[in-house]
Amino acid sequence: MSSSGEEEEVGPSVDSNDKEERIAARRLRIQRRIEAAKRDPNDPGDNKEIKEELKQEAKSGAERFEEITKKWESALQKEVPQSLHEMLMQQKTSCDAMIDEKNKLINDFQLELKNKDDLYVKDLKKMAEDVDLMIERMNEQIKNLKKAQREELEQDERAFVAERNELLEQQKK
After folding, report:
1. Residue 68 belongs to what domain range?
2. Interval 122-150 mean pLDDT
3. How wide is the angle at C-alpha 131 spanned by C-alphas 128 and 136, nearest 5°?
4. Structural domains of the chain, count
5. What is the pTM of this model?
């Protein structure tokens, strides 16, 4: 699986230089994850925890976004440039904090994904080794069975020849 680029084939990109586009991309990704969680509620326990974490994150993110949006209304009413500047700086700080939280969440998920990928690769290697061992044992068993059948066939053939020779001897007498 390649990097997170597969999820974002169309639409806004988290790698964009435009701040609004990055924010929109993160919102879209969270929304897709939540929708995927709603579509597939029968996942094992690990995924339930992740889905719950995503739901909580989306809920808190939406609340913070609403809080930031409400502050814009009061910022528009400011007429003194200094107070407007202070308000804008507070908004910027709030937005930066929210983006940092989202980036931390993304990093946590990427780390978890990397760990799961590593575990998956180890499991694949172990399975491959197990299959190789099983094939080796099967080949050895086939060899042993062929040898045992060959020996049994030779014994049967010797017994048949001996019996034939005995019958020939009886017929000669």
Report:
1. 19-171
2. 95
3. 125
4. 1
5. 0.48
